[in-house]
Design brief:
317 residues, BirA Bifunctional Protein, domain 2, 9-stranded mixed sheet, 3-stranded antiparallel sheet
């Protein structure tokens, strides 16, 4: 293979095109408006697990979005109704078997439903996009707490970091120094190494009701967040929320993210005040989900590396 050529075959590119057409057909059939929002923003993501890509434009710093979420929610507050977007998104420091710094995200929002109803919507979309033999069985649904107990033997809501780290050590997982100070980081490592690889092996699996400390932009009910993730072939495909619409609470979470960034030696990121203003104006009750389209193509063709489904990955761009 020459350095200038595509890492994806013509057949794979044709499959991508068919799946994109199927996605647009699905959303047209469900009366969902396709939208486009800017790739560049004055704000960046505050999540400690994500790194935005900065760019200098007309003498000012802008950030390539890691997701079109904030802008799409501004459209929801403007009265757009159900919407979706097929977006190119960017995340620094993410390269590997399932990661490319630039990738395709399919993101959509439904008004008036919770995250459980949205899981059903995701299941229907996957059935419309995947080959028939991949979507023949009804999806599995299991809570985050039950999944962690089943595959790692620990209680995700009650066990202290010492117990979580002991489970990782027993499984032979390399545990970074200082992890005992970050309970959620312990859980993230457990999910990525001991739990996630077992999910979605026979059928699509939804993990729902994450710990409240991992709510991100989801509503919280007691000890759990109204959030889910979708797995197939041990690969995380999608992340969905019953969306938080409280501007004050959302600002508090952004501020807490930046405080955590400072504690970890990461730079704090500029907060999206226009998004918060939209929440203050009033965003309708809704649920939303972001799906990694490249990973879905991987599952559709049983690819082993994301480079197989992208014409020109980062190393050839």
């Amino acid at each position: 293979m020459t350095a200038w050529s595509s890492t994806a075959t013509l057949g794979t590119l044709e499959l991508r095109a068919r799946m994109l057409r199927a996605a647009r057909d699905y959303f047209a059939a469900t009366h969902t408006l396709e939208v486009e929002t800017p790739t560049l923003s004055v704000a960046a993501v505050t999540d400690v697990h994500l790194a935005s890509v900065a760019a200098q434009v007309s003498g000012a710093t802008r950030y390539l979005h890691t997701s079109p979420e904030y802008a799409m929610k501004r459209l929801l507050a403007s009265g757009c109704g159900d919407i979706y977007q097929i977006a190119r998104v960017y995340r620094d420091g993410e390269s590997g078997r399932y990661h490319n710094p630039e990738f395709t995200m399919l993101e959509w929002y439904r008004l008036g439903i919770d995250h459980h109803a949205l899981m059903t919507d995701v299941e229907h979309l996957l059935a419309a996009l995947l080959p028939a033999h991949r979507s023949s069985e009804r999806a599995e649904r299991i809570s985050y707490r039950d999944a962690v107990q089943l595959h790692a033997g620990v209680d995700a809501l009650d066990d202290p970091p010492s117990v979580l780290i002991a489970a990782l050590n027993q499984a032979g997982v390399d545990v970074p120094a200082g992890l005992e100070q970050h309970r959620d980081a312990c859980l993230d490592l457990i999910m990525s190494t001991l739990v996630g690889p077992h999910l979605g092996r026979e059928r699509v699996t939804f993990i729902h009701d994450y710990p409240a400390s991992q709510a991100a932009l989801a509503r919280v009910h007691g000890r759990v967040a109204s959030r889910f993730e979708t797995y197939l072939d041990g690969i995380e495909l999608a992340n969905g929320f019953h969306e938080l619409a409280d501007a004050k609470e959302q600002r508090s979470r952004f501020d807490a993210d930046n405080a955590e960034r400072r504690q970890r030696g990461l730079p704090p990121m500029p907060i999206d005040d226009r998004f918060l203003d939209a929440l203050e104006h009033g965003m309708p009750a809704c649920s939303g989900v972001a799906l990694g389209f490249d990973r879905l193509v991987m599952c559709a063709m049983d690819a082993k590396h994301i480079d197989e489904v992208i014409a020109f990955p980062f190393g050839r761009a």
